[in-house]
Amino acid sequence: MKGKNRYILDSSLLEKFKQAVSDHDDYLINTYSNYNGKNLWSLICSAKDWLSVCVNGLPYIELNHSHDDVRSLNVLQLITTYDIVLQSIEYSRWNTR
Predict the structure, then answer these.
(1) Can you say whether the dihedral through the CA atoms of 77, 83, 87, 89 is positive or negative?
(2) Which among 18, 22, 70, 94 has most CB atoms closer than 10 A?
(3) C-alpha 67: how far from chain center
(4) Is 8 in contact with 58 (CB distance < 8 Å)?
(5) Are 51 and 88 in contact (CB under 8 A)?
(6) What is the model's pTM?
């Protein structure tokens, strides 16, 4: 694929996470839909969705574009994508303790 970058994430990990959530969704919904007065189930769903967007979109960020400004925006997009992944994992993990 033209412009494919090497900064990709293992989509099999995402699929395992999504399957684990699906396999235990009754437990997760019952436990985290009202956890100390907070709906943390929605955070888990949001994290899952953003991880999917990032993992599936990351390979299409073109870092070798011929125009400097476009390349700069694409580098920003790469950094932002990784930040979203980290925030999705960290926010879900720390708010469910």
Answers:
(1) positive
(2) 18
(3) 28
(4) yes
(5) yes
(6) 0.76
Q: Is 72 helix (H, G, I), strand (E, B) or coil?
A: helix
User: DSSP letters of 14-50?
Assistant: HHHHHHHHHHTHHHHHHHHTTBTTB--HHHHHHHHHH
The phi, psi pair for 66, rounded to 5°, reads: -75, -25
Question: Measuring CA to CA, how many Å separate 31 from each of 46, 47, 48, 87?
Answer: 17, 17, 17, 22
pLDDT of 1 reads 45
Locus of tokens 């969705």? 49
In eight-state DSSP terms, residue 65 is: -
Q: In the Cβ-directed half-sphere of 7, how many Cα atoms lie within 13 Å? A: 17
Which of helix, strand or coil describes residue 71?
helix
